[in-house]
Design a protein that fits this description.
Layout lengths: L1 E3 L4 E3 L1 E2 L3 H11 L8 E3 L3 H4 L7 H10 L4 E6 L16 E5 L5 H9 L3 E2 L14 H8 L6 E2 L11 E4 L6 E4 L5 H8 L27 E2 L9 E5 L9 E4 L6 H22 L3 E4 L7 H13 L4
Parallel strand pairs: 1-8, 4-6, 5-9, 11-14, 12-13, 12-14
Antiparallel strand pairs: 1-2, 3-7, 4-7, 5-6, 9-10
Helix pairs in contact: 1-7, 7-8
């Protein structure tokens, strides 16, 4: 369901439910599993999932509720599905300004993952009609919260390292942020680390990954899609019925299960069956290619 915040309209889903998160990617036609911002009714709620240092606490006190997203270390006990975090050790959290969206979050009493409610690459929606222009027939409903008061996306500030980094300018200015926590760095255009999920070798298990497998050895684990190949030491099927949304939901969990079990039994690697290069399959293959990239 889409709903309005003070920034833009977001396409919301239960951040603790992998199927709901995968459905967000599918509806948007999002080309890759970029981390999603999780929305909360209060900083207290947000910090149940994210580890807040003194900088985060000070910024939350000053700018929440409001158009500021913080990238923080994800708590080990967080129930947010790893697909919403793109398999990373960090989580993006925000508390929207008071209004209908804020009341909605308080009522559902769980984190809501909500990227902008538009087809990926299109102009962000600042009113309910804009959402319908892009997503009519693809989502269940739109909660009309009136025109967005800010109309541009939230500022995104990375506090996961020692130096704060501005990943995206938005509704809160850098000077305002600096007045609270001091100097803030700008992202290095050549640094893939700042852009979540863009390292050539990423999402990589400890075992080597072999793509486009048409046969599998008895000493290999198998990440299957559709009917599984015979002969593997162990199998995790992303979707036995060949459903890309289900496969997206299961991807990170499947790699972890096979890696752990394969290491336990001494398997030589993980063989991966082909996934169609279509819709969410593009994103799945992007992550698999990064998992299979030679380690530096």
């Amino acid at each position: 369901m889409a709903f309005g915040t003070e920034t833009v309209y977001g396409l919301g889903g239960d951040a603790t439910n992998g199927a709901a998160v995968a459905a967000i990617f599918a509806a948007k036609g999002r080309p890759a599993f970029n981390p999603l911002i999780c929305h909360y009714p209060s900083g207290e709620n947000a910090f149940l999932d994210a580890v807040a240092d003194t900088r985060a606490m000070a910024l939350a006190e000053k700018f929440w509720p409001g158009p500021l997203t913080l990238i923080l270390p994800r708590r080990a006990e967080s129930k947010v599905h790893e697909l919403a975090c793109a398999g990373l050790a960090t989580i993006a959290v925000r508390v929207p300004a008071a209004g209908i969206a804020h009341a909605l979050l308080a009522q559902v009493d769980r984190p809501i993952a909500a990227p902008s409610a538009n087809i990926s690459g299109h102009v962000s929606p600042s009113m309910a009609a804009h959402v319908m222009e892009d997503l009519a027939g693809k989502i269940a409903a739109v909660l009309d919260c009136g025109p967005a008061q800010v109309g541009i996306e939230s500022t995104v500030l990375d506090l996961s390292g020692a130096v704060p980094v501005l990943l995206r300018p938005g509704g809160v200015g850098i000077a305002e942020l600096a007045s609270v926590i001091g100097d803030i760095a700008m992202p290095d255009a050549d640094s893939a680390v700042i852009s979540p999920g863009m390292l050539a070798s990423h999402y990589a298990p400890s075992l080597p990954v072999r793509l486009a497998a048409v046969a599998v050895g008895a000493d290999e684990m198998l990440l299957a899609f559709g009917p599984a190949l015979n002969g593997a030491a162990g199998v995790f099927d992303l979707s036995a019925r060949g459903d890309l949304t289900e496969a997206a939901q299961n991807l990170f969990a499947g790699l972890r299960v096979l890696d752990a079990e394969g290491a336990r039994i001494g398997a030589r690697g993980i063989a991966v069956m082909a996934v169609p290069e279509d819709g969410l399959g593009i994103a799945i293959n992007d992550r698999l290619q990064r998992a299979a990239h030679p380690r530096g």
